[in-house]
Amino acid sequence: MALVGRRLQPRCPVSKNPSAEKDNQVAVSQLCIGMHVHLDLSWVEHPFTFSSFKIKSLEQISTIQSLGLQSVRYSPAKSDSQPLAPAEAGHTPPPPAPELDAATQAKRDRLARVETQRAKLVNCERELLSTARRVKGLTQNLFSRPDDTRTQAVALIDEIADSMLVDSDITMHLMADKIGNDEVYFHSLNVALLSMMLAREMKAPSQAIRLLGLGAFFHDVGKVDIPDRVLHKTEALTRTELNLLQTHVGIGLDLAHKLGLPPEARVVIAQHHERADGTGYPKKLQLAGISLLPKIVSVVNVYDNLCNPIDQAKALTPHEALSTMFGQQRTHFDATALTTFVRCMGVYPPGTVVVLSNGALGMVVSVNSSRPLKPTVLVYDAAVPKKQAIIVDLEDEPDVTVTRTMRPQLLPQAAFDYLSPRKRITYYFSAEANTAAG
Asked: Closest by alpha carbon to 156, among 202, 218, 204?
């Protein structure tokens, strides 16, 4: 194939010492494609998304040389190339002048996106707190005013559905630990929200999603009559305690009748612990005998319990929870519900600690249901104050990907303190205009 007219960019020789561990200083005139560099500047003092990256173009070299630096750090171990020799660098014509205005504008755009994302998270936390207060009030009035409880619960679920069931992308956001400080209310909300999102992704009708949300919201209502010594026990339950705990399904059904919940919501309460392979309770139903709505709630309920167990020492990361469900517990669930949940939560659900392809550490804070492989990541950068932490939407960074996950306990202490991995995983959502829609 002819290469006439095709512009080739020069490459530098591959480093002969890729195992070098220490960063080295190198003159900016010695930079070449393939070197992994670190810019020791404030994040707002350069136009790049990350302060540490591998050079991929002559334009990037030109931009670095325009920053007024005499030298930069580079990592031989992360580089594909060695620096140009000083003599060679001295005879190399300078690259073309960078488009400074374009680079500056690009950085301003990134800063604006970060501020928008941060404002969105704050707004979601505000919405979640408001919703949780309403949930607490409903629970407290469960016995004294059952009709009011049902009416207010229907109104709450309808409000959530009205926000969710629009022609929009749904983004699930990770909430701060201080938000999820009451396990009962936030478990009900987590299960209701994620179940409604899952039903939406499965193309369920609007009315079915509302009924599902109502059933998911009250799925554990029967636990109000289970002693705290059983509900909050961190050690393995005895057979007697387990039998007592499992009675919450029947108690919940009785309460659902008193509340006047519709049949579709009651069946969620009755069957949310049934398993497709017949190992569930209370009736050991198999897949064909379980209704569609509890099949959906079952998936979400297990996920939330794996992420937020009574004994926090046994908590799985969101990534581990999905991997466990798909790899070890697949026979427990409806296949369509499980695979759809994995897809819409993403391979790296919010709350997952990740290592990016440029070596940066981060934590997934949001996942868009239509772009599950491109999460939004809070990035650890010691040069950026924690309150101004970089939030990167990987949809905007095609050259940066997630390479692996890691348990929060394995983070360096500085990164752990900076990212503040959540002890409890709590979600809320936002709906955004679907830009892909024609």
From this structure: 218
d(CA 428, CA 120): 11
| Model-wide pTM > 0.70 | yes
Vertex 122 angle, CA 120 and 127, to 5° = 90
Kindly report, residue by residue over 7-48, the tens digit of the pLDDT: 334 444 444 443 345 778 999 999 999 999 999 888 878 888
Strands 168-174, 427-433: parallel, antiparallel or unpaired by DSSP? Answer: antiparallel
Residues written for the chain: 438
The two tokens of residue 300 are 């979400």
Burial environment of residue 416 by CB neighbours within 10 A (0 to 12, 13 to 18, 19 or more): middle
Amino acid type, 287: L
Q: Which residues contact 33 (CB under 8 A, 6 or more apart)?
A: 9, 10, 11, 12, 55, 56, 57, 58, 61, 81
Q: What are the strands, taking DSSP E only, across 139-277? A: 168-174
Handedness of CA 43, 47, 50, 55 (dihedral sign): negative
Question: Alpha-carbon distance 51 to 59, whole Å?
Answer: 16
